[in-house]
Amino acid sequence: MENGHSECIFKNAKDFLTANYALIYQVVVAILSIAVLYKVLFSRKNITKRPKREIGISPASNGTGQKIDCVNPANGKSMGIVNSLKPDEVKTCLKAAQVAQAEWGQTTFDERRQILQDFIDMFIKHENELVEASMRDTGKTRFEAMFGEILTSCEKLRYLIQHGEKALKTEERIVPMLMGSKSARLEYHPLGVIGIIIPWNYPIHSIISAAAAAIFAGNAALVKVSEWSTHSKILFEHLLRKVLSNRGYDPNLIQILPGMGETGEALVRSGVDKVLFIGSPGTGKRVMKAASDSLTPVILELGGKDPMIVFDDVELDWALAIVQRGCFINLGQNCISSERVFVHEKIYDQFCKQMADKINSLKQGPPEEGHFDFGSMTMPAQVDKVEHLVGTAIKEGATLLAGGKRNPAYPKGNYFLPTVLANVTEKMTIFQEEAFGPVCTIVKFSNEQDLIRMANGTVFGLGCSILSSDIKRAERIGSKISTGMLTINDYGASYLIQDLPFGGCKESGFGRFNGPEGLRGFSREVSVLTDRFGIKTPVPRLIRYPIDPASVGIIRQAIYMIYQRGIVNKLRAALNFTSQVIKNPKLLL
Questions:
Q1: Looking at the annotation, which residues are catalytic?
Q2: Looking at the domain covering 73-302+516-527, what would its CATH class be?
Q3: Percentage of the chain surpassing pLDDT 70?
């Protein structure tokens, strides 16, 4: 009876939660929002007000190098010319950043939080301008720009404001018994100037995500943007400089550097204190090689060929919605895009048909001309690569279910139709090479052993998503996938959880950004050992030069007494230790 009664209560509670999930969610969000608002309104510290500074002109805007024609990839129209920075001009940027950092490195966390909150205010106030700048630079839709540039940037800043100081707080460390008179701690100091090289897929968020973490840790930031998404830097850099100068800080603290590969290499070799590179494995290897000449440390976030695993126990409509987002968000131009979708054989045919039907029903077009599900790709060469990989896959035996070609309705833009390929196998080229475009490749699996082998069957190891009603199975399989990030029953959600570090393994790179690890990665770790009681500890005769012959025996017995196994052995060593100390008392003085 008691068991039946307990099961009834559990079932009623479960039914209540299911029926009222939306309401409960809204209440929780409301409570959290009130808590955040209270903290913002009533927990402010007094910060000394600095006089405003002139915005001035960024050294990064004085380039005289190769001209970059900023072309809108959605319509092929030029938006203007921006000059690249030559290597000596990159050095000028570095010197200005070093001056700014010397002052900024002395600021308090309260002052840094204030600037980051100003950045959030800036995003809110200029949201429409920033969204449209991103749309024109990349060809992405308004939704993609709003979600991928504004929301994610504000969340990154919010996280740093609320939790950044905790990650960089001095940590007390354990001192062994032999050093009991000492105390130990680990401190996080600014490195200096961080060199950051970002790709073209999120030209605004990628800047603020890395730069905000760098300056919160007390550094300056030099951000080299892609030549394929340069035009938005004009607006964004002006807004950043305005925030800094209005608060009385040197606006050269964050500089946005335009240029080609020469500019990026110059930044790596310029003398910056650390480099964060986000991009392709090939370029990442060149960055690492250039940085090795001066032993400049690097963080590399490189490509991915992420698996999305769909088991046969899922609700199909739910799974399809997640997979569609995983494959086609930002038109597949994501390092964590789900480039390989593994579907269990029991639901494979139905899954493929419904995926193709959905994708064939969606609309693609110029974002500035109306509402579309998909915009254009950003880089012309990437369209060529996707077209080649899809064509090769079909020749190798894949079945085309949707898309598969450039969009004939928009010949002047970089349009490739969202594509679905079925019957993809691990022997095909597209299984191995990163597409970085709107392609869903669907692979059939029947058992866990083959699934794990195939999922691990590339040189990449960035992320992995698993969809299943059996959480234990999903976690078991996930633990066997070589990846830096594992998401169960969702896609990409971990990026909005800024407390989780972001990064991969294998040729997807090493090091992390986001989370405490990301902030500490932009810091110089200093191990500090000092006197615990403020009294200088005398050096015992035991370890002074010249070394007394009896010292060896005493140290030997101390080792046995502390580290040897067995209580009898420890007691024997303790007696021997005591005996030798009694014979040589002066050695402990």
A1: 301
A2: alpha beta
A3: 92
